[in-house]
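Give me the fold.
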Amino acid sequence: MKILMLIAVFLPIIAGAALPLFKFKNRRHRELYVLAAVCVTSVTVLTLLLNAPVSALKLVSLTATLHITLRLDGLSGVFSGLVAFLWPLASVYAFEYIKHEGGDDKFFAFYTVTYGVTLGIAMSANLITLYLFYELLTLVTLPLVTHSGDRRSVRAGIKYLAYSIGGAACAFAGMMILYAYGSTSLDFVYGGFVSADTQRRTLMLIAYLLCFFGFGVKAAIFPFHSWLPSAGVAPTPVTALLHAVAVVKAGAFAIARVTFYCFGVSLLYGTWAQGAAMGFAVLTIVFGSAMALREQHLKRRLAYSTVSNLSYIVFGVTLMTPAGLTGALSHMVFHGVMKITLFFCAGAIMYMTHREFVPELTGLGKYMPVTFAAFTLASAALVGVPLLPGFISKWSLATAAIAEGGALPIAGVAALLISAVLTAAYLLTTVVNAFFPPAGQGGHGLELAKDPNMYMKLPFFVLMLAMLALGMGSGGLMELLSRVAAGAI
């Protein structure tokens, strides 16, 4: 079964890299090629999740103690499963959307390679392997951010690259301290491998914050968040994966790894480093929601919403308890499904009507009923309406914080409540105006507006079913996540 990890990571990388060599003249042939590579990869991941190999797969030895190694444990299984479920849907959606963008071969080449690199992050067995794929993720997503080739996309790409390189350098410095004084292998171990009574405790706490903020750049922690709204100029299939799955979740995933599997909560819990990390997470939750309320551009509004919701995950991690990590992992999964739906809807609106700003959506609901049905359900879920997945993850995070007690965890609960109110204001008001426009508003110039074709609508139906299933039948998943958070898997 170990060979399946190799296939899962490198099949999409090789397939994507080879795509331009085929010089497809028929669009349908390209779509079949991409879909085959993506679906085979997702089936491989599913097989791995059902029959997880117990040992690691060593790929390359860098030194006597440092190796590039893949391994599937509970945490990597959660991230891999989320990615494997959403990537085929995103690819099908992109087949239609990218028609008006051009550069199809280049786009799908990097899009498919990114799938394998993201799985490489998920299945990394140690910090050096994670760091390698983390850096590769920046390189393979940069051409996607700059795909349009205009001045705005180039500027967004430069900003994304600068932030990512700066964050990676910061994380590298923390990793080097960890390698010198913590462990020479950097292999992930639940509970961490740094002794709580180390004589270099202060240095280790500094190293943790270097890793936290370094990896936190991709997780859009304030004040290192501004690259994310800027990256919204990329084609919507790119922003959907940037904001819902690949890049931002890789940052949150890496923070969970270094917290629970490298430094360990026995070293970090109750320290000023934990307080600093949690404080920035709480601040980002409120800041991102407030900025989303101010923003009138739909994709940028959703981007600031992502800034806020990523810190829900980080807040759960920084509670440094199994209950907190359970809440973080549940929001990682549920937010991925909810937010990719919202971005798909935004992309469909832009694709069909060329409207980008929230006031322009007034009255559009009756002309694009499927699109706005999906947007409404995802919005209600993200707000935290009961029987939908956002309620479950927020409840899990809030109860974990209340059980923990203390000023910062309780401040975090307050931030979750404030964010929920702001989320309702910036999403549900959009829904109400779309379906029930004020008298005399809406309808002008919308006569030709309609829902997109099945390439875009099919993902809507699948994601809506997924949200309903997760909201009303998540007991088994939450039990699984609690076992992962406790280190039992």
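Strands lie at 57-61, 67-70.
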